Amino acid sequence: MTTTPQSIDQASFRNSFVEELRGEASMDKNPRQVPGYHYSRVDPTPVPDPHLLAWSEELAAFLGLQRPPERGPAVEVLAGNRQAATMKPFAARYGGHQFGNWAGQLGDGRAISLGELTAVDGTTWEVQLKGAGPTPYSRRADGRAVLRSSVREFLCSEAMYHLGVPTTRALSLVATGDEVIRDMFYNGNARPEPGAIVARVAPTFVRFGNFQIFLATGEMDNLRALADYVIRRHYPELGEPSPEVYARWFEEVCRRTAIMIAHWQSVGFVHGVMNTDNMSILGLTIDYGPYGWLEPYDPDWTPNTTDFGGRRYAFGQQPRVALWNLMQLGQAILPLVSGVEALNPSLDVYINTLGTTRYEIMLGKLGLTAGNPEEDQALFEALEQALAESEVDMTVFFRQLSHTAPAVLAAPENGDAQWRELLAAAAYSMAPAEEQALLGWLQRYFVRLQQEQASPETIREKMLAANPKYVLRNYLAQQAIEAAETGDLSLLSRLMEVLKKPFDEQPEHHDLAAKRPDWARDKPGSATLSCSS
Ligand SMILES: Nc1ncnc2c1ncn2[C@@H]1O[C@H](COP(=O)(O)OP(=O)(O)OP(=O)(O)O)[C@@H](O)[C@H]1O
Q1: How far is CA 129 from CA 22, 114, 252, 439, in A?
Q2: In this structure, are residues 342 and 315 in contact, taking their beta carbons and an 8 Å threshold?
Q3: Is the ipTM of this complex over 0.95?
Q4: Atom nearest to 205 CA in ligand 1
Q5: What distance in Å separates the CA atoms of residue 112 and residue 108, rounded to the nearest whole number?
Q6: DSSP assignment letter at 306
Q7: What is the C-alpha separation between 223 and 220, in angstroms, rounded?
Q8: Residue with the nearest Cα to atom 17 of ligand 1?
Q9: Atom nearest to 278 CA in ligand 1
């Protein structure tokens, strides 16, 4: 293991996916079905003028990598124009359910994995380029990504990491110097947009869909080989694969998925397209496409215009959709276990873990220690209902509550005025009946809070550590994109820095914690997005 940071073009890559699984070696990029294989070896397609736009310092340091200059061999690797000697790039084969329907073979249509790097702690991390050109899985598309969606993936995956949400990471954002034609809302208004490539990083990018494809095509040897690979490499604590271990592994995937979803619900993250090919086998948030952040707390909200008909992936549906997706994974690996009874209890593990994790997170957000779970649950549900029935910014509400609740605890005589001030700060609009409902809830909560033993100061610290001040608000991402498209990277860099410490006050950046401005309420790219990227 090396301690001196090195340039990625000099780095030593491992290739466990390629070496331990079955791959098609032809390097042929023509779109086609690829039965019989886990992956296809394929090289990225070079771009005209790769140059670095953003770099994630901490992740790079963790991977033992040094920041490259704007142009040069390292950036050429991050754009797919050059390869390090040890790389064996590949695109993985997977299938999936999209919006509830089986879609057949999908696969990495524009993602190409370069191999794995060993981090300073000895763990291994796969580096994958998104937008690096066609692969056998590109179907009718071009294998490219636009700057708009790449900025969104780069910024948001790192912001999620710093919020403590399980996620894939992003190492670099590189402009390609090329233009890519996209119809942003699939409404006949195609236009050229600048192209970009994100190098993203995770222990593995294997998804539920990687298993589903083998059930669909009856490739049982490949199914087992992939499960064994994932267990041995990523769940070694479970022991050598066996029918019992496959079942315990499924339980662990259920548990991790529940923890991920509990975190999404606690910060107001809406994934937007929770197809089974977007569910990581490690319980990580994967594919930052038409995602968004709740501004007014609204369980029916999704930014994804493709989903406006059914709102299948709206905020409030996410816990249920993850369960449905886990059931599809269970179906896919059923041939590996003794029967459905070996897997069914794991779905309860999902439900229970989701419940307990959400409960614990909510206690933290409200500065409480565990009390009577049923009464607490009723208190939490009453808050969710009062928030949903009004137009209150989720992030501002909880952050402001972290200041106000301990202050009222210290000086209860000013309570009423302070609660009203909190609501005024968090609300986009407030009808008298909505205000009454929220004030009623705050009084009920305050009675519960008064039973706490901790000092107001301790409660305040606990709440501030649970309620972020800064999230990647939809309009901020859009502003950063519009500036980046004109060559101005200042907001992008500022957001990167501020979102590294989302729980810190950072008063000099207070403007980045502001509620959504009026102009952004219905703005395309901010309030509404599509899968076009
Ligand atoms: N421009 C494109 N060229 C080729 N394939 C694409 C393109 N956009 C999407 N795909 C493929 O379509 C499928 C579903 O797309 P989706 O938008 O969920 O994925 P994505 O954003 O490309 O990728 P990922 O899930 O890897 O983050 C995937 O198989 C994906 O690789």
Answers
A1: 21, 7, 28, 49
A2: no
A3: yes
A4: 26
A5: 7
A6: G
A7: 5
A8: 531
A9: 25
